[in-house]
Design brief:
The protein is mainly beta. It contains four helices and 19 strands. It folds into two domains: 110 residues, Trypsin-like serine proteases (Thrombin, subunit H, Beta Barrel), CATH 2.40.10.10; 118 residues, Roll (Pdz3 Domain). The strands form five sheets. A six-stranded antiparallel barrel has the order 4-5-6-9-8-7. Strands 11, 12, 15, 16, 17 and 18 form a six-stranded antiparallel sheet that branches. It has a three-stranded antiparallel sheet with strand order 1-2-3. It is elongated.
Amino acid sequence: MKPGGALDVTLADNTKFPARIVGKDVSNDLAVIRIEAPKERLSPIPFGKSEGLLVGQKVLVIGNPFGYERTLTTGIISATGRSIRAENQRIIENVIQTDAAINPGNSGGPLLNRTGEMIGINAQIASPSTGSAGIGFAIPSDTVKRVVGDLITYGYVRRPYVGIAQVQPMAAYPPGLARQLGITPGQGFMVIEVHRGSPAALAGIRGMSGQVQYRLGIYPVGGDILVAFQGKEISSPVEVATAIDHLKAGDKVTFTILRGNQRINVPITLGETTAEMQ
């Protein structure tokens, strides 16, 4: 990649054309680029449906593993409905698992069904050696179709927005300190920061008000403690963020918080992300 996000794309006949990044979605490990090449030089791969795929179906993988251009490997769908983590720690859901050989250099290449339709985009492998171990993952084509319109039009994916910027797991607090604060040890996540003017702030969610020293550590205090989302206990803030990604701006959600000795249900109307939040 060149400075400023400019790219060169090499076609099969080794001709190069300039390209640029149109938009990216880190949460789904996807990006859209625009290549400055004549239309007749390009042959789009048709989209297939990733919904309804069956374990055992034959698939093909195309990529440039270890720099070996236009390499084809084959295999089957090993599992569907897998979850993997993106670079920003968001959970990517409904991922396709395949035993077709995927290695560094295959990322971004297509996962094809037997009729040549793209049913996924190769993304990651599970391997202690970074080489193929028969466990590769592809972002499903239905996810690609869902976000690509926003990437082309806006350069980012419009997502619902809460505005809770940072939390601290109460499991990190010593039990003695938690009890002093009137908190059940290990329960929930303390809100450290809330974005000003955000839906969470407008709903009255409070961030930390200070810090206390306890033995050898310093711990935030005074923030609301998130214990449940939509009535279900919060085990991971990332899982909550992923669940919110499937909603839309204007939807109403409910967080359950502990504030002092009170357990309070707080309704929040979701906002919408902007380009600056990406």
